[in-house]
Predict the 3D structure of the following.
Amino acid sequence: MKNSRMRLFIAAALLGVILLSNLLAPWIAPCDPNEANMRVRLQGPSPEHPLGTDSLGRDMLSRVLYGGRSSMLVALAATALSMALGMLLGVLGGYYGGMLDWCITAVANIFQGLPGTCLMIAIVGVLGPGIPNLLLALVLTSWAGFSRIVRTETLRIREEAYIEGMRALGAGNGRLLWRHIVPNMMANIIVLFTTRVGRCVLSIASLSYLGLGIKPPTPDWSVMISDARLNYRSAPHLIIVPGLCIFLLLLSINMLGDALRDLLDVRSQEVKEL
């Protein structure tokens, strides 16, 4: 328990620093992230540019401070939409069963049987790059995971004695679903949400690196890595700095999810106490 709380504190602190630096970027960034100055292109760290400049002479520190905003907003929106769709279908299928459950499970199996990255590339490749199409691709490849887990939890909870008691007292299906079944699975959903956010960030970075996600000149860490491919030998900081930012963001999100899982898993805590 103590180790979990320590990991939660470290992960929350690291994630908080990253989020605050991106939210406060308009006030703390030393330069305009899109302001080019060819006279200082590909410079290393200096007092004027602490993280150096890129191939167009843009300040790397300013671009790094702005760089996580688009990815994190898209990742949070995509994960929230995937969770909402997956929870709705998973709860309905798990609770009512029958043909409805069979159809939802069959569709979820089809989506989960397709390679997620290939499907995202196909969707964005057909519809074209851009944030709306990227968001659609992320939702279509992520909702099935939420649906299967929520369905399993619904099947387990609906057989509990207190659900039978509420049904005997006259509680309707709507009340049982949204007042008793869904709230009792939220701990697992919260943990799943945090891990899925990290996966969405990585997917966005992969697609943006291929030119199918967030488009230049938007300052984004994955776009910065893609732009640095031609100059990484002479200016390795162009790849190291945004790559380190993505690594720290994913590390903090995964640590947060692991710590929350340990803290919210009541059954494992009871076993440890015994």
